[in-house]
Specification:
mainly beta, Immunoglobulin-like, 8 domains, 16-stranded mixed sheet, 8-stranded mixed sheet, 16 helices, globular
């Protein structure tokens, strides 16, 4: 029999003992009724049964179509495994369909239809749906979550009593879990009439503005209580549903039931690359119809719609047995590449349609493309042109729509719909250099490059390249995926063009003409913008388009990028963001870029957050990759630009900026420095060798992109194009400012900020600065290595100022810092290279036990790398707080005159320093002359009288009086290596417990009233709260004889944790960190916390107060109150010290005037006459002596 025209989408499965309604779509004819029948049989049935089909609905889309339906009675579907059927019309038959039969689904009493655990404020809720025919009392059930072993960890009731939280048949209700955090928020909003609805309406106006009018059923269950101090806590055994990245397994049990009684199972975040829980977003859920006790997430990032169904939310109805009908509309016939994006259109009929999706075969696998309803009631799914252009001649897809109890599919992965793809488009140009409108700086022989692609291949013989109108095709290097050409003669400054004509092997042509400029780089414009913000694609608000529009129209910025958190995004989502950014990019008006933020938090290494711009990749979940591997991923991408985001204690400092290599340094172009609070991170980064330039961003999570503060970033570029802004990033030509009207142009020896000077003999800095701030510019400082100020001038209330400074090139870099009250600005440095001829090759530390007054010994090894004799070599020591100092205003604490230093010779000198409360920085500055040229170097060391020496974060549980006590004997040990006692007044231990959160009061311990004797220790036992344990129990556990309130402190303050995250424990004097140890997953992927295992620490790492973790021999016995030999500082002898002091005093007497004047060239130019006269006077003195 011949076939007839019809459209039918079979169900993915059918159920025994349930009616099944099948639909067929037919094009309408002149006659009003078609003789259409269904012939079917179940596997065991011997013969077909026939049923007449009748029209029930219709649709008009250019042509009109009628939907015919028929019901197979439940009694006909009681047995068998497969239902077989076909349609017949007047002797013509359709293909035969086979549908798997299974027992009817048993639905749980209710299902979770929406999960919203991170709504903020007073909201941590689940939307519940009752698919049954009877009212459900939630008091009869409990929600439990399971531990890693699959056992019940905690239980939540679902109502405060019987008959309170009732869910009607087919009803939707919202259950808010009132944990201690939610209770505090509700208390704060107690004066509001409806605090939850008003909060949701303010936070999510698009979807939650009318919850009261909708009659949303809002229920709650109270999980909180107040203690005797009126503090809110979550009830014992209950849990907050607020969580983020971790996997959670939920079960619904009858009240008091066991796991074997579970009626519903829900796995949240099982795949960490596709999180269900997003900050400020909901996820939508349904069930697996084949097993309705299993929850299935359908949408992981949507605006919340608590208490009412989202338009595409799939709420299965057990009694809705009609299989949706699907009518395919477009594409008809061939798909043409020249037409751009391809829209697959279809109509659908059926009850409560949901999840309309087109699955398209891309690179061998089917990829889902959700369909949306257009204004004509037709579903559309858009296949991007670049995806279509890589398909090998055909488009393969199938369509799926759910509704009621069933899901229908038109086509399958085994038998898809197929449309021929006609290649009538020329090759696609993927990348061009130079880009349209780009200004090249001093690049007179640029490599002109194009990357292209065509599915049929590019015909290289017929392709043409012209530069400035001249055909250079024969001189170009043509490859299958691109062409390269470098001009034989330098191009002049000014405007240029290149043109390309490409043909594919089918003859399709692409033509492109690109205009660019070459300039000398002498003129730069200041362009303002930001490259770090968030949207609802991660944990912010608004869409990427909203952010780009607002920043342009309200923020009035010149450049902008959205950089959502990487672990929220799939690669497709990031590419979609890039397309949005591309659509906003306009040369000369608005330069838009794209990127992502790599986000290591305290659960995944605590390295910090890092922005990455301009890539076509995104990282996997951040627990799977460490900082150093990520650096190398950047190195492997020639286009990537990296930025250290907000380097600080709260968010991470990139392992104290260790791990520098030249290749990594090249990729890390930027550092997010938002104000003076980040100055320490900026100076440490530069001291560790990184050449990263400062920019400011607001890191917006609200819909106020670029307008939240006046803090902003600037780039200096010759033109406002995306390429020129990114080139400015690569050249480190940026500055950060808290005054968004401040324009800074800073050059040294005529080269812009960020430049590298090769072996200059003198430095001339020029600063041009303007502001519209009514308070003026303020104090300008030129800062060099290790935060040493070498020149300073106060412009006060002036709004325009030019400054000319002449300096010797003593140090490795020089940058400009501007302070005006709370306003802070800082530029990228100008770097000095090729002058490391006199070096401090080693700076070592030890203790002089013989001298209680000056016990800190620092040895400085100086090395002459010049190949010639160095003369007048002098080491000067400066003792300051950590923040640096002004070189020309600070007298050295001590000076050592070495005199001559032969080529390749090294010399070690020592000095001893006193103990002061807290910490001090000892800076060594060495200078010497090779001929008439002076060379210098600097290094510093932080010193402190006391340090954290060991800790045990986790100990085995014990049982006392029949009760288990967890973690009973964890402790921290402090060590005083000084030959004198240390008073711990004003010292505090502080635990950094989580990302972005300063140490809370309950995680701090003041040490006032305690003293550590010379060479002694103080052990802090962190006892479990209310545990019936004494100091004797602690001593018995460790075999020690510590005395409480002498060398043992007992506290219940939670200054230690073993929760598996990364943590820092600080010893702080007033506001100064004097000792820091890290433990757990801090700058490591593997947790170093193990039960009953001490963590032992030694000396400080370079330029920080963070101590090195030691690896001890296996036979080492580690006990509280006993310092290991590996922890002891080096011992320095006082005899050498006294001899060196006598030598230094003799040298200082001879050269006291010269010691001060060698710093003179570092002062501003205004003092030049005074300096010149002083130098003349000194020369006269020496001439007289001689």
């Amino acid at each position: 029999m011949s076939a007839f025209e019809f459209f039918h989408a079979p169900a993915t499965l059918a159920f025994r003992d349930r009616d099944l309604i099948l639909q067929v779509m037919l094009p309408d004819e002149e006659s009003s009724l078609v003789n259409l029948s269904l012939l079917y049989r179940v596997e065991e049935t011997a013969q077909d049964r026939e049923l007449r089909m009748l029209p029930i609905d219709g649709i008009v889309v250019e042509d009109s179509y009628s939907a015919y339906a028929v019901t197979i009675p439940a009694g006909e579907l009681q047995k068998g495994q497969v239902l077989t059927y076909r349609f017949e019309r007047e002797g013509a038959a359709s293909e035969t369909y086979h549908i798997r039969l299974q027992d009817p689904p048993v639905f749980p009493p209710f299902i979770v239809s929406e999960l919203f655990p991170w709504g903020g404020g007073p909201v941590q809720c689940m939307e519940l749906y009752n698919p049954g025919t009877e009212t459900v009392d939630l008091y009869d059930f409990e929600l439990v979550f399971l531990d890693k072993e699959g056992q019940i960890a905690k239980r939540n009731p679902l109502a405060d009593g019987a008959g309170i939280n009732l869910l009607a048949p087919g009803g939707i209700g919202v259950l808010n879990f009132v944990s201690s955090g939610v209770r505090k928020e509700l208390e704060a909003r107690a004066q509001e009439e409806n605090p939850v609805f008003s909060y949701l309406a303010a936070q999510y106006p698009e979807s939650c503005s009318d919850l009261a009018e909708r009659g949303v059923q809002w229920m709650q269950v109270d999980l909180s209580y107040q203690n005797e101090k009126e503090e809110w806590h979550t009830k014992e055994g209950c849990f907050s549903i607020y969580h983020w990245l971790g996997e959670r397994e939920y079960r619904v049990l009858p009240r008091g039931g066991t796991l074997s009684d579970a009626v519903y199972r829900m796995s949240v975040n099982p795949d960490k690359n596709h999180l269900h829980v997003r900050k400020f977003r909901s996820s939508l859920w349904t069930v697996d119809i084949a097993d309705p006790s299993v929850a299935v997430c359908t949408h992981s990032r949507v605006m919340p719609t608590p208490g009412f169904a989202d338009p595409y939310q799939y709420l299965p109805a057990p009694n809705a047995v009609t299989v949706p009908a699907i009518l395919t509309l477009e594409p008809e016939g061939r798909v043409h590449l020249a037409s751009g994006d391809c829209k697959i259109k279809f109509a659908a009929l059926g009850p409560e349609l949901a999840l309309p999706t087109v699955f398209v075969k891309v690179e061998g696998a089917y990829r889902p493309y959700p369909a949306a309803l257009n204004n004509n009631g037709i579903f559309e799914a858009v296949i991007p042109a670049d995806t279509l252009g890589r398909m090998p001649g055909k488009l393969e897809y199938y369509i799926q729509v759910s509704g009621g109890l069933y899901t229908a599919t038109y086509g399958t992965d085994k038998a898809p719909c197929v449309q021929r793809v006609t290649d009538n488009a020329g090759p696609a140009i993927l990348r061009a250099y130079p880009a349209e409108g780009q200004f090249l700086e001093k690049e007179h022989t640029p490599e002109i490059a194009l990357d292209y692609y065509d599915v049929s291949g590019v015909n290289l013989r017929t392709s043409i390249l012209c530069v400035d109108g001249k055909n250079v095709s024969a001189l170009a290097d043509w490859q299958a995926d691109g062409v390269r050409y470098r001009p034989e003669k330098p191009l002049s400054n000014g405007a240029h063009t290149f043109e390309v004509s490409l043909r594919d092997t089918l003859g399709n042509r692409t033509y492109r003409k690109i205009a660019f400029h070459i300039c000398d780089g002498s003129k730069m414009e200041c362009y303002r913008g930001e490259v770090h913000c968030h949207t609802l694609d991660s944990d912010g608000l608004g869409s990427p388009a909203d952010a780009l529009t607002y920043a342009r129209d309200e923020g009035k910025v010149d450049y902008f990028a959205v950089t959502d958190h990487s672990h929220y995004l799939t690669l497709d989502e990031m590419r979609a963001q890039r397309k949005v950014a591309d659509s906003f990019n306009v040369n000369g008006k608005y330069a838009t870029m794209h990127g992502f933020e790599m986000t290591w938090n305290y659960t995944s290494g605590f390295w910090g957050h890092m922005n990455v711009l301009n890539t076509d990749w995104i990282t996997p979940y951040h627990e799977n990759i460490d900082l150093y591997s990520f650096y190398d991923m950047l190195v492997a991408d020639p286009d990537a630009i990296g930025m250290f985001n907000h380097p600080c204690d709260a968010w991470g400092i990139f392992d104290d900026f260790d791990g520098w290599t030249p290749e990594r340094d090249e990729k890390m172009c930027l550092a997010e420095i938002r104000g003076s609070g980040f100055d320490r991170g900026y100076t440490l980064m530069l001291s560790k060798g990184w050449h990263a330039a400062p920019v400011a961003n607001e890191d917006n999570h609200a819909a106020n992109w670029t307008t939240a503060t006046t803090t902003t970033g600037y780039v200096l570029a010759p033109s406002l194009t995306r390429e020129n802004v990114m080139e400015a990033f690569r050249r480190r030509r940026t500055y950060t400012t808290c005054d968004n009207t401040m324009k800074i142009r800073y050059r040294v020896n005529g080269e812009w900020m960020g430049s590298r000077l090769q072996a200059p003999k003198k430095l001339t800095a020029d600063v041009e600065i303007t502001t519209e701030n009514e308070n003026g510019i303020g104090l300008l400082s030129i800062v060099t290595e290790d935060n040493i100020v070498v020149a300073r001038i106060d412009a006060g209330p002036l709004r325009e100022f030019n400054w000319h400074v002449e300096m010797d090139p003593d140090f490795d870099y020089y940058y400009l810092r501007v302070n005006n009250g709370s306003l802070y600005s800082v530029t990228a440095p100008v770097f000095v290279e090729g002058r490391d001829l006199l070096q401090i090759s080693q700076l070592s530390y030890g203790i002089c036990a013989e001298d209680a007054e000056t016990p800190h010994a620092i040895d400085v090894t100086v090395e002459n790398k010049s190949g010639k004799t160095m003369k007048d070599v002098t080491v000067q020591y400066y003792v300051t707080p950590l923040g640096g100092f002004e070189l020309r205003h600070l007298a050295p604490f001590a000076s050592v005159h070495i005199g001559k230093l032969e080529a390749e010779e090294s010399r070690t000198v020592s000095r001893f320093f006193p103990t002061v409360p807290g910490r001090r920085r000892v800076t060594a500055v060495v200078s010497g002359f090779c001929g008439k040229e002076r060379y210098a170097d600097t290094a510093y060391r932080l010193i402190t009288p006391v340090r954290i020496s060991k800790l045990v974060p986790q100990t085995a549980p014990i049982t006392v009086g029949g009760e288990e006590i967890k973690n009973p004997f964890r402790y921290v040990e402090l060590y005083n290596p000084m030959p004198h006692a240390v008073d711990l007044s004003k010292y505090v231990l502080k635990l950094w417990h989580a990302s972005g959160v300063a140490p809370l009061p309950e995680r701090c311990l003041a040490l006032d009233g305690y003293t550590i004797p010379a060479g002694g220790t103080l052990t802090v036992w962190v006892k479990p709260a209310d545990a019936p344990l004494t100091a004797d129990d602690f001593n018995t556990r460790y075999g020690t004889s510590l005395i409480q309130d002498q060398d043992l402190i007992v506290t219940e303050n939670r200054i230690l944790t073993a929760n598996g995250g990364g943590h820092m424990l600080d010893l702080v004097f007033q506001k100064e960190i004097v000792s820091r140890v890290s433990f757990g997953k801090y700058c490591v992927l593997d947790n170093d916390i193990a039960e009953n295992t001490p963590l032992v620490y030694g000396d400080f790492t370079a330029m920080t107060m963070r101590q090195r973790k030691l690896t001890l021999p296996e036979e080492a016995i580690v006990l509280p109150g006993a310092v290991q030999k590996e922890q002891l500082p080096a011992i320095k002898r006082g005899g050498r010290r006294r001899r060196e002091i006598r030598e230094a005093e003799k040298a200082a007497t001879k050269r006291s005037i010269i010691t001060r004047l060698t710093e003179a060239p570092l002062v501003p130019l205004q003092a030049a006459k005074l300096i010149a006269s002083a130098v003349s006077a000194v020369k006269h003195i020496f001439s007289s002596k001689e």
